[in-house]
């Protein structure tokens, strides 16, 4: 076991690292633990000057209030542990600190004497203690490393922080997301040997408390090898949706030998022989390693559960393994979408921009699914598709008899239908100007007044807008209200066109598997190459359409070759056998056809004529011929 380095050894390591620039020096290696050394190296690589004062930009009290409100749920969950650590902090002259996932201090509670000294180094609410700005410190480094960590005196990167001794642990939610950190900090001169243990225990309790919340009918399995630990924070917890593992505690994953990447992937049957009945009795299960585990399956919480009103998000998507129905994204776009989810959680409007078919609506759906508003509606309005005369009534609703043609009992309007969920305004750039003013008022006042003089009604929805137009330029040219622009474009997420994907072939292969589950059908490598080099002006929409058409043409165990691609994708190759060519170049097919007297030829001829008559629309032609589409494709191709 590594012994604690003496302050003198740490000082020598500092000299070697900072003054002599010897990051690998022997004194450095012997005095510092690996996480601390890694952190110093990260900070040095970032150009932080250890002798300077860290640059701090505390939030204003208003900003801090807003952030605190946003983290109300976390703060509430942590309160009992903060209070019990506070009792300890009062005795040992420490402060207890809760931060968000970026190291922003939300709460600091503790001994007044030390709190005053801590404030000198800005260890107070509203200040970021993330490692990238504040250097090596327990909170920031624990968040980066994903581990509980203690940072004593001179192990801090910045010299002025040498007066501190801090112990922190990241808080991880049931979906494997780091949501904050808990820290106990005190003067460096005092021995805080037990601080890290106390913080770890407190975080274990907090993480266990996440499972008191309503998992919306999912099955919650609690288990432990030691029966006495069942029902305590030391029990493991796994949550299953149908049979699939969707959430877990760290202990739960450790007990079955899995990691966070198992979420959304592992099935109950791969871990246990079967789950017990949902009741309060303890049952015995055999774990994956054959060990006996005592367990209990919680009965699903009803709508009137004690935690009703709390919105627990659905399982997040595990980014390295895109969920089958989610959008395929470039890594940078994935990060932007993850940030957009947090914006929507904080009721900040999100604007999605991107070329047609890049998945703006799909991403909006995905954002909705990943927020606490997933249980509420997703209401999509295409501002370009609704006639200008109707859009106002559609959006804002109307009272009984508000205008000629209005429904008898009035209409609620789409804004109110989005209550509790997400309103998606697609093609917002096409919204008529007068309506923009009304929408702006709704967003400012958070209430809707229906047409016909109805009483204003409070509304609660998160707003996601999309456009393929350059909204800023449109606003500058007067085609879009600038004040509305600034309201809806607080956070802008730009989706990449398909041609900008570095791994186009892999992306296309992935989409193929998703759209074509029949494993017997496949794309030949040279076909995939052609698909990957094409420019895809219609982006994913065009690609998905093309892949579906190729699947209809494909035969089991005969990979689809490039000859089946439409000419513009196939490039110079003119040996066309795809559906469009089938409809238009009957001459070339004629030359390959069998003698005219053959029944087969007549059939194919009839098919071809029908296809021509339907303007190349295969579905329509097949319907009118009374055969299915794949038969039509196949017969024409084999002719
Ligand atoms: N990123 C993606 N991953 C997988 N499929 C996608 C993606 N983006 C789009 N698609 C496919 O393309 C179709 C169109 O997507 P969507 O309507 O979300 O695009 P859009 O950008 O909103 O288009 P438009 O601007 O024309 O309205 C979807 O139904 C889906 O089949």
TrEMBL record:
Signal peptide annotation: none
All residue ranges annotated as the Sigma-54 factor interaction domain in the record: 331-552
CDD domains assigned to the protein according to its UniProt record, in alphabetical order: AAA
Keyword Transcription: yes
A Pfam family that the UniProt record links to this protein: Sigma54_activat
Biased composition (Basic and acidic residues): 316-329
UniProt keyword Electron transport present: no
UniProt keyword terms in alphabetical order: ATP-binding, DNA-binding, Nucleotide-binding, Transcription, Transcription regulation, Two-component regulatory system
Entries under InterPro entries matching the protein: AAA+_ATPase, AAA_lid_NorR, GAF, GAF-like_dom_sf, Homeodomain-like_sf, HTH_Fis, P-loop_NTPase, Sigma_54_int
Region annotation Disordered: where it falls in the sequence: 297-329
PANTHER family according to UniProt: TRANSCRIPTIONAL REGULATORY PROTEIN
Designated name of the protein: Sigma-54-dependent Fis family transcriptional regulator
Organism: Ancylobacter radicis
